[in-house]
Amino acid sequence: MKDIELIPFGVQYYRAPTPKKESWETDIRNIGKCGFNTIKIWAQWRPGNPSEGKYYFDDLITLMDLAYKNGLEVIVNVAMDVAPAWLYKNYPDVVMETANGTKLTGMATAHRPIGGSPGPCFHNQTGIKFKEDFLRALISALKDHPALSIWDLWNEPDLTSVINVIPKMENLVCYCDHSYRSFLIWLKDKYSTLDKLNMVWGRNYQEWDEVELPKNFHGSTFTDMIDWRTFFIDTITEETKMRVDLVKEQDNDHPVMVHTVPMPYFNIMTSAVDDYAIADLCDIYGNSVASDPFASAVSSTAARGKKVLSSEIHALSGFTFTRPGIPTEEELNRHIMVPMARGTKGFQFWQYRPETIGTEAPAWGLTTMKGGMTPWLEYAVKINNGIQKYKKIIGHVKPLPSKIAVVNGPKNEIFDWCIDHSENRHFRSVTGTFRALYDGGYNTDVISTSHIINEDLDNYSVIFYPFPYYIEDKVGEKLKEWIKEGGTLISEAFFGGFSDSGYHSLEMPGQGFQEVLGIEEDKVLTVENVKDPADKEWMTKNGDKTIPITISSDLEFIDKGKTVGGYYIQESFISEKGDVLASYSDGSAAIIRASYGKGQAVMIGSLLGHQYAVNGSEDIKGLFASFASMGGVEMFCRSDNSHLRVDLLKNETDYMLIVANNNDSSGRYSISIDEEVPMNNAINIISGTKHPLKKIDGVSIIELELEALDCHTYIFQ
Fold it and tell me: What is the pTM of this model?
């Protein structure tokens, strides 16, 4: 396979029909002069397959020739969600169908201006055949080009190419006969007999062809919809595998990748993307929103040590009437260095020139409309120069291993949606929990429930399980064993209330945890009842859904007597052997810790992660840090200011420090590392400024002057 030691740094350049051909030679030459080493070009099905059986790749080959001439490598970005016009005309049966019967025929969108979106149904064999034919022809045409670097085989996987991205029932696909028949096969494989399906779904079907596709317009059951969307998660994964396999048939010299859009930007209901399953199929993995620490953590966790790229840096997003802001140098630094702190090893800006067609025009570009230099392009050049100067170090150091994981279960996300067609409880709980730990300075992985079932959890000392209402039986059993062997589980409200049995648990916490922990749910109130059940208009108007929780035990990073805010739910507990750590205003137990085997579990009767996502809280941050400490997790690297994020990356010989100042003002800060680093200076990779390292009692200390909201990277020498 081609050497992928390069740290790709560059731009998305070509998505037909823009930029126009007359700009190509000058633009590609200027990109090379900027010191960038990579461009991305789109290989789209519609322009690449203008009529049945005929293919056109001359534009791509010309661009790759120009790239090679100017010392640039090329990522080929495959887009098959733009089907040719002839496909819709000659084979009208290929279209997807929504839950309300709408046929999604080919259309142009802001992000697919060539038309043909969203492409054919993923279960239509005619559509599948023509996609495979196109991809085979594309691979054959480009695989031997010397400029080719990486096959990016799916640009932001999604069922409808974001046409129906809002998770409303009427937007869900696909309800055509092809998907229905494929779903029946999937159900037979899962349940074997109709009796088993009836038992779990709560139905009385007498024949398989009586099974109805779930349509949850007004609130309904859970397991049928969870199965229906899980079927599409498998569909997207299988489509990815098909693309990877087709490349590997012809080309084993170039790595394959996919880049996704993790939640909350895309959701499981309309995208059906399981990052962890897709990453398994790839040589490299990426995402479009890596400047977000949560998205970056999802991709790096899913990649499991594979190289990760920040595939689309959206530094200048906008539309025709919502123009992009003017990015500062500090903002550009963050776009690169926040994901780099997580181990990301490649960066592509979206895009070189501003868009000139459709409602994405005239935004998104690093250059002026005519391709000229801008201050923000100069910032990007400076950052790249620093990265490439130290690429032998940056390319090989790794973040310190995460001892903490946050669970993000796709079936739990679907379960949440089934209640009222919103996933806010799930994604805010998950992202808020992650963010509280991230802001507290902890390296934290984001693991899937499939990770829990199929992989070893011994690397983790503490697992946080936000909004854990739906838990598969295999997940519950694995967590029990992990706790018994010494793990620390931190769970929010309603642990295991529903499972793959299809029915609500008769005991809470569910999954048998009531018995093993000796903790029992006492009563449950929601905020309307806690505040004033008769005064709902006040609640709606003020939107205050905070549940006061008072710390009643001595914890390491939050004082006894402090009050933290839970969110919406007040689940209280009783326990004969557990320790009450916090109480509600009525005196009932809000947080209980109980031992099991060599480990322990902490049950929280509200949604602290959700509260942190909505309102932030130094006290929740301190409480989560206390939970981490209970599990034996210590911070290896820290600062004297709680609003600094500090990341240390290292290998056997090299060290790299990335510091993000999240304060609104500049200042001088001290950072300590619990190791006597065998170097004397920290060098800013952009400015070259040296900062001495002090060594005191086995601890290395560095003092830095940082501007407000800035982010910098330092190599130790």
Answer: 0.96
